[in-house]
Specification:
The chain has helices at residues 3-9, 19-31, 34-58, 65-89, 97-117, 121-141, 156-173, 184-202, 205-218, 225-246, 249-259, 264-292; strands at 221-222, 296-297. By secondary structure, the chain is mainly α. It folds into 2 domains: 1-31, no CATH class; 32-297, no CATH class. Strands 1-2 form a two-stranded antiparallel ribbon. The longest helix has 29 residues, at 264-292. The radius of gyration is 21 Å and the shape is globular. InterPro entries: ER_ret_rcpt. The chain crosses the membrane at residues 37-60, 66-87, 160-178, 184-205, 226-246, 266-287.
């Protein structure tokens, strides 16, 4: 009998979790309907947004910039979690190279355009996140290349055809169009800024597909560093939503400029909603796995 089969026969399981424990947890998970999962995700989102609003209003006096800084810091630490995984486990198991490339692409675009439009601490935080992301990509393409799961990950062709090209096309057609008196350079920066916004919204899709395929195969995705990283991305999205809610006048502005034929603000809001919707489902199951102490994340990704 092969070693792996001996372990299973003896009651061992995936990632050191016993088969009995795994079956019990999966049975509990399957008992929850899709409607309950959606309700749980909405409840989690509502509680998180309420807490964020309270912190910003009562501790920081309504300074919304605090929310944006928190978003960038959470994302940065999420990438650091991945770095720790790569250095400790010497494996890219469960990690999508395409999502890391998407992340690097939109961060490069944002740093370049941000240097012209903002040039402040946000640009610096984006640059730091880009630097760590670049290290992750470097390790995945060099010393850990043999552990990259190309079979589950999105192909390069599909990445360019279904993610990069549509985002770039949309960016050329609909962008902020600010500081246009600077000429061609300003136009390029506007396109890059819009490209980063659109790409960020769907950059995590390849990662969720990898995790979903693993979950479909073994019944769950074990809550390790990769899941922690995706959860960190989810938190950044909830913080982004909080920033919109804390500024109710923003919605009025979006509606006003949309009726004026300026679609940029409207598409920015849509991009935020899409990314939040993509990650909300996973975040619910992640929190559920923490609450029941199983360490197993079973989710039905929308991608």
């Amino acid at each position: 009998m092969e070693p792996a089969r001996r372990r299973n026969a003896a009651g061992g399981g995936f990632g050191g979790i016993t088969r009995k424990t795994t079956d019990e947890v999966l049975n509990r998970m399957k008992g929850a309907s899709r409607g309950q999962a959606a309700l749980g995700a909405l409840l989690f989102s509502a509680v998180f947004l309420a807490l964020t609003f309270a912190v910003v209003e009562w501790i920081f006096g309504g300074a919304v910039d605090v929310v944006f800084i928190a978003m960038e810091i959470v994302h940065f630490f999420g990438i650091l979690v991945l770095m720790r995984k790569l250095l400790k486990e010497k494996s890219c198991e469960g990690l999508s190279l395409r999502t890391q490339e998407n992340t690097a692409a939109y961060l490069v675009a944002r740093v370049i355009s941000g240097a012209l439009f903002e040039g402040n601490h946000h640009t610096l935080l984006d640059f730091l996140t880009l630097a760590v992301t670049a290290l992750v990509i470097y390790f995945m393409n060099t010393s850990l290349k043999s552990t990259v799961d190309h079979k589950r990950d999105m192909s390069r062709r599909d990445q360019l055809l279904y993610i990069i090209a549509p985002c770039l096309g949309m960016a050329v057609l609909v962008n902020p169009a600010v500081k246009m008196h600077l000429g061609f350079v300003a136009w390029v920066c506007n396109v890059l800024w819009a490209f980063s916004t659109y790409l960020e919204a769907i950059s995590v899709v390849p990662q969720l597909k990898v995790m979903k395929q693993i979950a479909d195969q073994v019944g769950f995705f074990e809550r390790k560093s990769t899941a922690d990283y995706v959860f960190a991305l989810g938190i950044t999205r909830f913080l982004a939503c909080a920033s919109w809610i804390i500024q109710p006048s923003t919605f009025g502005y979006v509606i006003a400029v949309t009726f004026q034929g300026k679609l940029w603000a409207f598409l920015t809001l849509i991009a935020e909603i899409v990314q939040t919707f993509i990650l909300a489902d996973f975040c619910y199951y992640y929190v559920k796995s923490v609450a029941d102490g199983s360490g197993l994340v079973q989710f039905s990704s929308v991608v």
